[in-house]
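Before relying on records like the one below, remember that each one covers exactly one chain. Contacts with other chains, cofactors or solvent are not represented anywhere in the record.
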Amino acid sequence: MSPRFRPSFRLTAGVFLAAMVVGTSGCGRFATSTARTPITVPAPVSGLSFSPDGKKLATSIGPKGTIWEADSGKELVSIENEVPSFGALVFSADGRSIAGGADKSIKIWDAATGKVRKTLDGHTAGASAVGFSNDGKILVSAASFYNFRTTIVELFLWDVEAGKKLADINTKQFVLSSMAMAPDRTTFATGSLDNSVKIWNLADRREIAVFQQSGKVLGSAYSPDGKMLASGLGWNNGQRRGVFARWKIPGCWNG
């Protein structure tokens, strides 16, 4: 029997967005769910991230970033921000820092105070996705922009302590629409509007797998054990319906 999922938070602004509190069993199998008290907020939610211990939830809502107590929904910390809006948020592995795209910059905040620790400048388009390495020393960021005249695709690696760019990876993909870090933070995936998903090794920046899909990739996520990647697709072969695909990660699967 398929498990039923209930929202842990309901963050509302005309559209409902749910963050799930779930247990896991096996490879990408959800086993339990727990309902919590809904929270209503005044604007669309553009970023969500649980702390590694699951006790806190960071949200970006228009220009406002907030860290909540996940169990009670109590507001704990307001994240300092100087731009009209920002998108993706992610905790570091130790839970002490939060990174997020703030227009064409990446901000790194102290998770305890919400104060800015570092500002990483270098993107020429709005940064839409970020991810920390396991030791917190390297940050991955993705940015894309497209119109009929200009296409920008940027995938950068940063030295967090120095605040400097380490590498600019040429993904050879058309418009990055998603990025996901593996649970062990040693690899990451990039999804594109050219229907492709690529897996990268963080240490040597090497492309280790390519999955070609039947539609534009709009989102991606690893299973908790890192052995499977799920990707969400937009229009599929011209049909106005969404689908998703699941991929076994090479070298990680037994059976």
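The radius of gyration is 18 Å.
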